[in-house]
Write a structure and sequence with these properties.
The protein is globular and about 50 Å long. The chain folds into two domains: 118 residues, D-amino Acid Aminotransferase, Chain A, domain 1 (2-Layer Sandwich); 158 residues, D-amino Acid Aminotransferase, subunit A, domain 2 (D-amino Acid Aminotransferase, Chain A, domain 2, Alpha-Beta Barrel). Strands 7, 8, 9, 10, 11, 12, 13, 14, 15 and 16 form a ten-stranded mixed β-sheet that branches. It is α+β, with helices and mostly antiparallel strands. The chain starts with a strand and ends with a helix. The protein binds N-(5'-phosphopyridoxyl)-D-alanine.
């Protein structure tokens, strides 16, 4: 059966989907997006993703009402069902709209919404054995809190990481580590977690927020301060969080600094909590 996609409010065959030549997301990266995990045919934290999408829209001056959010959420569920997606992701993008190329946008333009699904198994091997990450300068703009499709700094850093046999790039502005190219970063030192505060310099990840809740349940204190690059060497544990990578341990930092680590106990405890959530989502509760 042909794969379906969402175009506006319609669910249609992927090969029938058409985009305007003048979509502003192509000319200017002028759009926003979300990636939602599906476990056992059920979306994980859909409401949080939809709220973040609405926030990104507000910050970008793209019209997106609470009613739009509810309609979209229902359409995404329908799309996932039509494609019989069990284990994978939903990708949804809202561009400002299509208009003759002009830096100046007009407020009457109609946003263009589309979504697709993709099968994606959980990264079970790396959840267990961890990954190597590549430390490199954060060259992105100063509104990383907006989940914009303009991801040049992120994609260039990811390529650099891959060229050094690393699975993720971890970015730093001078001495201060911000986040991964498509993930958030945590370290653990003396039983305390540390992560960058949710400022304009990072995306406030949904998985990050979930992990912070687990930390509270486990009675762990959290320090919300940028991680100094020099402190990586003294860390007991480190991990990244994201929708696709869940809670992935870091076993090695390369690049600006070289540090080796073991998969730690607190990381494992957080992974266990996450696993419980996955099981709950899979069973539809
Ligand atoms: N990326 N930081 C950045 C820059 C990201 O792109 C992402 C997610 C995160 C983690 O956010 P969350 O926990 O909500 O997935 C942090 C997605 C998965 C992507 O672009 O594919």
């Amino acid at each position: 059966m042909a794969e379906k996609v969402l175009m506006g409010k319609e669910i249609i065959a992927r090969n029938e989907a058409m985009f305007s030549f003048d979509d502003r997301s192509m000319y200017f990266g002028d759009g926003i997006y979300e990636v939602v995990r599906i476990y056992g045919g059920h979306p994980y934290q859909m409401e949080m993703h939809m709220q973040r999408l609405q926030r990104s829209a507000e910050e970008m001056d793209i019209p997106f009402s609470t009613e739009d959010k509810q309609t979209l959420s229902a359409s995404l569920n329908e799309l996932k069902n039509e494609n019989h997606l069990q284990e994978g992701i939903l990708y949804v993008q809202v561009s400002r709209g299509a208009a003759e190329r002009n830096h100046l946008y007009e407020r009457h333009e109609e946003p263009v919404v589309f979504a697709f699904t993709k099968e994606m198994p959980r990264p079970l091997d790396q959840l267990q054995s961890g990954i190597a990450v590549y430390l490199t300068e954060d060259e992105r703009w100063l509104r990383c809190d907006i989940k914009s499709v303009n991801l040049l700094g992120n994609v260039l850093a990811k390529r650099k990481a891959a060229d050094h046999d690393c699975q993720e790039a971890v970015l730093h502005r001078g001495n201060e580590v911000t986040e991964g190219s498509s993930s958030n970063l945590f370290i653990v030192k003396d039983n305390e977690l540390q992560t960058h505060p949710a400022t304009n310099l990072i995306l406030n990840g949904i998985t990050r927020q979930v992990v912070l809740e687990y930390a509270e349940q486990l009675g762990k204190s959290v320090r919300y301060d940028p991680i100094d690059i020099e402190d990586l060497a003294g860390a007991d544990e480190a991990f990244i969080t994201s929708t696709t990578n869940e809670v992935t341990p870091i076993t090695e930092f390369r690049g600006t600094k070289h540090v080796q680590l073991k998969v730690g106990e607190i990381t494992k405890q957080l992974q266990e909590r996450f696993e419980d959530d996955v099981k709950k989502t899979e069973s539809g509760t």
